[in-house]
């Protein structure tokens, strides 16, 4: 090893604390980048593999009742490569553990040609049998061999569960009208076509169709053609794969992971570059005489540049290696979390070489950017000047002193202030470092606030009913009064929902229109700010995002076509918008929907409030009512939310907060350490002229305290900015992330920065205790 | 020592102006000087007289503001950093008053630092043996006395077998007996390797060691004298 490399190695060891701080930040950046990218790629690969293996269709359509020969016309449409008709129905499922809603889907011979199942257990269903979706099977504890009772169209049939399966169509299974998955209350069952057709009286016909397109065909064109052909058979609207709910959730998740893989590492790497810059500038100014000597010996500028850049690159290299390991662990953790959430046959996480290389490349580039200034400083230093001790800085009285406050300040405070004022750039950098630590902590830990806020909005303000009952078909509202009289039920409110097509000019959207009684107390419309938006007697309230998509303003009219029942259509006035967080919703009063549908007085469900401990009795009573298709319990939905969205987001937030804390500690350590190292000679002088160790320490502490004072508000502000940025990146039409930062988070972020500063300052006291005054004052070092 | 025909260094009208904060400091005001192969020249002058600046210009650490400086066929008045670096790398050894050792490297490694970039260096151990430090090879600067550190710095300067050895107050920070040992080391290098040696000092006693003595005052050469006989370090006292 050359002597210059030995020097580098010993410099690294000597500055190991700061080197470690840089490496930790780099490791966090590379870890998030590699872990998120690799998880995103794993999701994408698993999704695409499943889609191919399961032959997921490109276009889906449903109608009320279509004679089988129409299938030939659909199959002959340009762009359609393969077509399969199906029968689908909604049912209620009674099983040993209770009641649930289910979608029944018919299977062609041998499992059909499109949307094929992947069996996890058992086999495909034969006559009198059904296969069940895995999420539902696990949540409801149903295994092959169990018997469940299905009620379709008022007919009760026993079926035996033949197997547990996954479907590319239902990677993410969401009950109609629900905003988050509820595996316990909703599932998918696949039955042989003849059996299901008999149950819904559709022999010789179909009510659903899916098609695979030939390469290059436009899904939208086929969708339009399907709508045209199926219109006279009660078409409920065709949609391309891109509009398939399950597909959209998975794709959105991948998009968010990719966003995450960019935004956070960019911030972390910015901090890393900053730390490299501070550490290396300090090293270069401390080694001025050495640089001069090396130049006098004849070392070329290039050799010196490599030497000092090498310091940054090696430190970063350690961070990169740590980051790859961290990224692997993080990715595995995320993949495990997703495996519970998205139902793929395999979700294999593998470390992705390309993203590892990209992360490493970006980290090294950031290090070089950070090092550039210091390296240039080292290269440009004239050798003769480098060997002279730096001339004393030009000090002057500080603003505070000029303002006449001097007598109030002890000499140490005056020194600290003058130091800050003399080297404003250094003071600014230190302040920025501390602020960035605080900002990252705020933006990381506010995820907890956001999830809690969303839970509180959804379950404490919007949905106050303990149970939501869905009827198997629209019934007169007397049914709700009956439920209200059940023992244990304290209140019941009717509700109704209908699949609709909303059109405004050339823009359209298919969605569920929900109707509630104005002034209802069990289910309310709540905005992202927690404000309750009253349901108007007339007109419709739209999600703000939906209104934007349809280019609607309050007061405009929107054309609404109801896709079931009498399929009536008519205009509704937009009475207002609500800035809600989940999905795209449209809400009106029961009377409004009844008028539009032409069947006032009908309801499709009820919200119930029940007495504490009355759940088993109420559940039992509801199970005995055949018109009750399903019940979803608020407590279950809350648990499911916590388990699914909660666990992914909070798991991610936990990792982020851990990273943010590590970064904060690193930045604070580095800032204080640099401040100490730059001032070693001055501090030694203070000791020599008789300052006690404590008094000397307080000069240093004064500087850190002044920087902290400026950094905390700045960091809080920047943290809020980062949270806003994350919310923009994370939001989609499925999910809008609000910006919520609770008081505890401010305290936590500022407290962690303060604690890190305090611990490092205590370390500085130890450095001072060990300070060899004579060596610190000796020339030439 | 006899003077060869052509000088190795030729300085003509060398002027150097530094800008220190808001004032211009004229360190050299038109210096003319010739130095010859193998001679030992002592440059004598009070502090601030411009002698260090002269040394820096001769060593290619600093380019003059005006005037001509040549070392053999090298023009040292150009401000081209790369050319001056190559000149220092191939031909010059420096010894500084403050030793300027790299504190994180041992004596041997400090010497190796110079040996590794030279074309025909001697072994670092050999250079350290010349200054009588064979026993202290693996000591760090902080473990060496001032005199030992200065001798490491001499070993580092001579390890590349330089054509020119430039010493800036090499005994300035040392006591008398240590200073003498350092001077002995320098003289033995000058004698044994035939290295042209320029030694800057404000200590008049050291002038007795030189072939020629250059007196610098106020940025100019005040006088130039030749010693009839070079004294040995043991004979001088300060």
Q: Care to describe what's here?
A:
The complex is a heterodimer of chains A (about 775) and B (about 240). With about 775 residues, chain A is α+β, with helices and mostly antiparallel strands. Helices cover about 55% and strands about 20% of the residues of chain A. Chain A is built from 23 helices and 22 strands. Chain A has a 6-stranded mixed beta barrel with strand order 3-4-9-6-8-7. The longest helix of chain A has about 45 residues, at about 635-680. Chain B is about 30% helix and about 30% strand. Chain B has a 6-stranded mixed sheet, with helices on both faces. The mean pLDDT of chain B is about 90.
Structural class of chain B: alpha/beta
Identify low-pLDDT runs of chain A.
none
- Number-wise, the strands of chain A total 22
**Taking strands numbered 1, 2, ... along the chain, how are they ordered across the largest sheet of chain A?**
3-4-9-6-8-7
Please provide the ordered H/E string of secondary-structure elements of chain B.
Answer: EEEHEEHEHHHEHEEE
Oligomer: heterodimer
Number of strand segments of chain B = 10
